[in-house]
């Protein structure tokens, strides 16, 4: 076998590379569609629809729910990394976070104007009063569980 010169290697490398970008995207497109997530335009449309059509009150509830998720994850990570010596404290804190998330989700569902037909007999003020009362009861049990 004869050794290839650098000029021959460069010529071979140029032959392997397609000359037009259309050829590259056409041949790679089926592979990329299986590997990459859906088009970013879907996420952009979803975000635009959320920011324009969702009322401000529901966005505040969504932000609070995201905060509760972050707090719950941090509590769990802390318990895994550091330990759970006062296990009842971890359970109380985690149960408080999950319970408050569930109560906030139910408030969001009842306060959503799109669900007005489903909750005809429940006004937004009554839904908030139910949320506040259930939150007080939840936190009463959490404090009682701590000992």
Could you explain how this protein is built, in words?
Helices cover 78% and strands 0% of the residues. The chain is built from 6 helices and no strands. The chain has helices at 6-16, 21-35, 40-53, 56-81, 87-111, 124-146. The radius of gyration is 28 Å and the shape is flat. The N and C termini lie far apart (83 Å).
Determine the strand fraction and express it as a percent band.
Answer: under 5%
N-to-C SSE string, H for helix and E for strand: HHHHHH
The level of helicity is over 70%
What best-fitting shape do the alpha-carbon axes yield? flat
Helical region count?
6
Kindly provide the radius of gyration, computed on alpha-carbon positions and rounded to a whole number of angstroms.
Answer: 28 Å
The largest pleated sheet is described as:
none
- Backbone structural class: mainly alpha
Average per-residue pLDDT, rounded, comes to 82
Ranges where pLDDT stays below 50 over 5 or more residues in a row are: 17-25
Number of strands: 0
The span between the termini is: 83 Å
